[in-house]
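ok, trying the design again with the full structure, not the truncated one.
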């Protein structure tokens, strides 16, 4: 069942978190709530890489990842500037948010981190079918990065970090929409 939202929609809603956090499933449900809407899948930009691509979770992939995420940010921003509600599904850590947000070319974005327990993420990654990412060590490392960023920044963490996620995709999407409506997810772009 699809829920349509009334009232103002976010221009660009970034839903992020470690692999296995439920981003892709929730982002699909969120993108169906607004019209017109665009779902920008960060992983799709990595699929554009052909020869010489490095697995993005490896340390030597930093320059490749930086370029790829910059392209995704620019694309998401163009859709948002064109009047569409954009839901961005990808790994955008708090440490990269200022750069990502600035590259969108818009003045504010909404930012939500899905951070279920590491065990939940690892189970989801290990039981995936048809997904290119199945590296449990890399998933654990990325989960640790998100936890560390949230704890180091404390109350100054941009946007909202959801750790106690309700059961079911619709309930998680509802929690995100409630956070957006409250203004807690808003991140002002500074240049």
């Amino acid at each position: 069942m699809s829920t349509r939202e009334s009232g103002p929609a976010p221009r660009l809603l970034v839903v992020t978190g470690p692999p296995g956090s439920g981003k892709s499933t929730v982002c699909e449900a969120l993108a169906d709530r607004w019209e017109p809407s665009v779902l920008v899948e960060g992983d799709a930009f990595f699929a554009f890489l052909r020869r010489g691509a490095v697995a993005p979770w490896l340390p030597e992939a930093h320059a490749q990842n930086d370029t790829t995420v910059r392209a995704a940010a620019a694309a998401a921003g163009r859709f948002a500037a064109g009047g569409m509600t954009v839901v961005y599904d990808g790994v955008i850590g708090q440490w990269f948010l200022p750069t990502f947000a600035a590259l969108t070319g818009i003045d504010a974005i909404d930012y939500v981190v899905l951070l279920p327990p590491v065990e939940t993420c690892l189970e989801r990654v290990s039981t995936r079918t048809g997904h290119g990412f199945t590296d449990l060590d890399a998933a654990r490392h990325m989960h640790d990065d998100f936890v560390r960023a949230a704890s180091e920044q404390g109350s100054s963490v941009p946007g909202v970090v959801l750790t106690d996620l309700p059961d079911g995709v619709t309930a998680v999407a509802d929690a995100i929409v409630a956070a957006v409506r409250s203004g807690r997810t808003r991140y002002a772009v500074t240049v």
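Keeping the full-length input from now on. The longest strand covers residues 108-114.
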